[in-house]
Amino acid sequence: MADQRAPDWVIPMMRAGYSARGLVYLILGGLTMSAALWGGDAEGTKGALQTLRDAPFGQILLWLVALGFVCYGIWRFIAAYFDLENRGDEEKGLFQRLALVVTGLIHVGLGCAMASVALGVGGSSGGGGGASDWTAKVLQMPGGKWIVGAAALGILGAGIHYVIKGWKKKYKRYIQNNEKTQKLEPLLRWGFVSYGIVLAIVGVFLGFAAMNSDPSSAMGIGGALDYIRGMTGGRVLLGVIALGIIGFGIENFVEARYRIVPGVGHSNDIQSMAQAAKAKAKSTARTAAAS
């Protein structure tokens, strides 16, 4: 069970983290929609960050986003250590808590990378160039092919996880039930699925790069979006994915405001969307049985 001694400041830190993620994915979704409607290259997350940096007060906003990503990482560390989400101490729960630590490390790293963009030392925003360069460097290391392959499996697994989480509505377990979250649910669901599809594409092509020792096969999120646009009916597909990425950004803002953390405060007294759906199903079943 979750440890009630978890610090109260973990909630504001969590809110800052989800808000920062939400802003980045809203910008990315907007850029992707622009590419679908008017053409041009689809931008990755680095392109979204550079767009933010070039906006009015963008330097300050970018520093805040970088700090938010670091906060998100720290929130994941604390959630894993105190088991704030009641994952448990069994094998499955420990694996899930380890996954929280891994995502925490990734987001702290992303926060540091964003700080480099804020300082003006980040690389280009191309969809696949950065991924190809990184892959080429790792492939030259001892065991580099296996490292890239492991990263590909991790990204592919994360993509599949997001698709399943959205399709099966597993996110509802941690989101407060109210009128706003109910209205936004279709967009939240497609947000998870869309983001998962993009990650899965990145993972698959990174896997090709590992198997063939060919770094040019690797691509980032921007490259995955360009790949989708190149498919039959690609601009329509890209527009649908763009809407999903916007939905994923909104989902992060929803979690910033309405996420339930069982191990802190009185969160156990708040009804989640999953609990509301279960109660509604039981009520419907009783009504049907009575009639």
User: What does the average pLDDT come to?
Assistant: 84
Give the fraction of residues assigned to helices: over 70%
Task: Please give the largest β-sheet.
Answer: none
Structural class determined from secondary elements: mainly alpha
Q: Indicate the radius of gyration in whole angstroms.
A: 20 Å
Strand composition percent: under 5%
Low-confidence stretches: 123-129
**Shape type:** globular
Helix count?
A: 10
Number of strands: 0
| Distance between the amino and carboxyl termini | 41 Å
What order do the helices and strands follow? HHHHHHHHHH
Structure, described:
The chain has helices at residues 10-38, 45-54, 58-82, 91-118, 129-139, 144-167, 179-212, 221-229, 234-258, 273-290. With 291 residues, the protein is mainly alpha-helical. Helix 1 (10-38) packs across helix 2 (45-54), helix 6 (144-167) runs antiparallel to helix 7 (179-212) and helix 7 crosses helix 9. The chain is globular and about 65 Å long. Mean pLDDT is 84; it is low at 123-129.
